[in-house]
Amino acid sequence: MKTLPAVDAVIVGGGWAGLLMAKELGARTSLSVVVLERGPSRQSSDYATDMDELDYAIRLRMMQDLSSETVTLRHDGSRSAVPLRQHGAFLPGAGVGGSGEHWNAQVPRFLPDCFELLSKTTARYGANALPEGHAVRDWGITYAELEPYYTRVDKLLGTSGQAGNIRGQLIDGGNIFEGWRSEPYPTPPTKVPYFAALFRDAAKSLGYHPYPAPSANISRAYTNPDGISRGGCTYCGFCGRFGCMVGAKAQPTNLLLPIIQKRKNVSLRTGARVRRILFEPAPKFAARGVSYVDARGQEVFQPASVVFLASWTFNNTRLLLLSGIGEPYDPATGRGTVGSNLTHQVTLPAATAFFDQPLNRFMGSGSAGFLFSDYDRDDLDRSSLGFLRGGYFGARGYGFQPIGAFGVLPNSVKATWGSDWKKAAVFFYDRTATIGFAGEHLAYKTNLMDLDPVYKDTLGDPLLRLTLDWRDNERRMAEFVTPIAVQVARAMGAREINAFPGLRSYDATRYNSTHVQGGTIMGDSPAHAVVSPYLQHWQLPNLFILGGSTFPQNASANPTPTILAFVYRTADAIIDRYLKHPGPLA
Ligand SMILES: Cc1cc2nc3c(=O)[nH]c(=O)nc-3n(C[C@H](O)[C@H](O)[C@H](O)COP(=O)(O)OP(=O)(O)OC[C@H]3O[C@@H](n4cnc5c(N)ncnc54)[C@H](O)[C@@H]3O)c2cc1C
Asked: Is the whole model's pTM more than 0.90, yes or no?
């Protein structure tokens, strides 16, 4: 193995988390920083002419290559897992910018009580309220501690929206159930697609509190505190699964890369597939650097004083397991921490509504739309409903393209082929829209990640194995929310509605979201957590883990603002304190 000259910091993964840390360290210190990214190089100008649905949205050109590395899945520990050979429930990215290039840019914050879920739920409903076998944890941090970093994230992204709670003062038209914000959104809400406007009016007429979806596809020109300027969204409809053609969508390549590229102390190596974190064993316990296979297939050791894992949920967890760092979680004994608390946001097409009139749904962005969070707040007593926690409803104009969106028909259309089917498919193509629901996923002792004993990647390393299934809490939540979405669709004037048929087993073929969390969770004690709330490894203080792998359970909200808020907080702690006194951060 070739050994390279040592650097101060090595960052594994060049997505939102890795590049934000690289930008902070690179711009605010003189540390030498190397980012290792397994995928190809990318820049925002690559997308200027690339609106090809087949290439990006169907063949998924920006996603991880599953022929080289994938995960295996089983529903419970008594079965063998099988490799996922096609993308389905989640779409991990590869390449500079990671999934942040082809994300939708929906940017809600987590509710304050999410961070203290165990103690708040127990205090409110009693110790026996949480489902049997749950693994719900407090995060070891409060919303109030994180709020200033959320505000920095909004300013970084230029988030468009209408605040609903500024320092406790509720504002009509915003999300009055959200946690308090110290400042309004940096830019006003985006335009409202027609279908979302119908949803807004219907939800209001039923007594709900709709608000414009917070969006990092920005509504108008904005210059962020780093001096990066972007124009407003053109609602072209090619957004999630695509890079932004006009640069209105916040992406690592348009917000972070331009700053990193100007810094001589930061370098970015693509085609670098990290295999192991090398470390000094006890009593010294310190990371020494990482080994990777470079683009030419050569094995390389990159020594570093500080190691950051920012390779998303699956690889953050897998790299710890492959490297033998920490004790793997064992559901039979409850011992160990690495791999525990696997969760996946519960998203449902709760009601698919069919209209008489065209909806112009080819226009839109990945996040333009309206939401309501009346069933997402923590003061709603669910003790009689048979499930805990909740989520939010939404209607968005994503911009629907002809291949993916064609052929969704009302249940009353019985034809499955031929001219009747074609006639109905053409008629409903622009007359169909979905009211979605995004809900929380509690952590359970039996949902976890470990190394697969059978299947390996192309380098011969064991694949990550997911053991994951829905439980009654999620199924009952789906049963509860579906009629609400149907009621709203009816009030919107839909001529027919297909209701979500219900959650059964975890379905690896239906896209759920790429909001998979856990595996290296944070907490206030090494007894149940891999990292501290500063994302610092409890045993190896020069190892930091960034990203959703550190979340003890899944909130209803999309995770990226929370991921970035934690990166800012950790960067501050490292720059202000750790560099002066390396060691555990208190
Ligand atoms: C289609 C889609 C839509 C989404 N929409 C939203 C949304 O609207 N709102 C929201 O909040 N979130 C959304 N997400 C999720 C969001 O993209 C992620 O939360 C975010 O990108 C996570 O950032 P990250 O840096 O932690 O991980 P990633 O963006 O996944 O970056 C990790 C990087 O690490 C690299 N890597 C992995 N393993 C290795 C290795 N062994 N060696 C070297 N490099 C490695 C990967 O190639 C990747 O580039 C969406 C995701 C997808 C796919």
From this structure: yes
Instruction: Determine which residue's CA is closest to atom 50 belonging to ligand 1.
Output: 103
How close is the Cα of 451 to the center of ligand 1, in Å?
A: 21
| 135-145: average pLDDT | 98
| Contact (CB, 8 A) for 393 and 482 | no
The pLDDT value recorded for residue 50 is 76
pLDDT at 380: 61
How far apart are the C-alpha atoms of 239 and 235, rounded to whole Å? 9
For the annotated catalytic residues, the residue numbers are 515
DSSP 523: -
Does a structural domain hold residue 185? yes
Ligand 1 center from residue 515 Cα (angstroms): 9
Tens of pLDDT, residue by residue over 385-419, are: 889 999 999 999 988 899 999 999 999 999 999 99
Question: Stretch 87-92: mean pLDDT, rounded?
Answer: 96
Assess contact for 240 and 401: CB atoms under 8 A. no
Residues of the domain holding 485: 159-249+346-439+470-505
List all residues whose CB is within 6 A of at least one atom of ligand 1: 12-18, 36-39, 91-95, 98-100, 102-107, 240-241, 272-274, 310-312, 315, 366-367, 514-515, 547-548, 558-560, 563
Q: Name the domain count of the chain.
A: 1
CB 364 within 8 A of CB 460: no
Other C-beta atoms closer than 10 Å to the C-beta of 461 total 17
Q: At what angle do helices 143-157 and 560-573 cross, to 10 degrees?
A: 110
Q: Distance, CA 123 to ligand 1 centroid (Å)?
A: 35
> 201-211 b/e with 16+ CB inside 10 Å = b?
ebbeeeebbbb
